[in-house]
Amino acid sequence: MTTRGYFDNGATVVALAHRGFSLDGLENSMAAFGAAVELGFRYVETDVHGTRDGKAVALHDASLDRTTDGHGEVADLNWAEVKGAKIGGLEPVPLLEDLLGTWPTLNVNIDVKGTSGIAATAEAIERTRAHDRVCLASFSTVRREATVALLSRPVATSAGTREAA
Description:
The protein has helices at residues 30-38, 79-82, 96-102, 117-128, 141-149, 161-164; strands spanning 17-18, 43-50, 56-58, 86-87, 91-92, 107-112, 134-137, 156-157. Strands 1, 2, 3, 6, 7 and 8 form a 6-stranded mixed beta sheet that branches. A two-stranded antiparallel ribbon has the order 4-5. The protein is α/β, with parallel strands linked by helices. It is globular. A hairpin with a 5-residue loop joins β2 (43-50) and β3 (56-58). It starts with 16 loop residues before the first strand and ends with a helix. It contains 6 helices and 8 strands, in the order βαββαββαβαβαβα.
């Protein structure tokens, strides 16, 4: 595991806002991430899926159905279809690139949830040059390693289920 750049001053424990911070259930929304930043969090966690046309979106579920007013599997939809869905009926589903670009000093733990998110996540990290402030995670070692392999520079990583066991 590499941690260079992700942890400040050698810290080993940090407060991390899981899916941002929202008392209203607007998880993984720009409003939730903004609320975490306003509270002073310097680390947030998000989940990522890739759309059919290769965009990385910050969303926990593979489907839009539970958290948004939209329907369908993210991997089966184009970004134009996903961006119309509203989290809690209020907030648009954000692109990972927007999260990384809006707060350029925010550290982001990224859980690559499906194979559709591998290349899309790597591309978002590359475009925003966020290598020094992301930690790639996944329950799947294969997804995590495949994402890291597409990057031009090293990033922090976390153990997958196999390594943790």
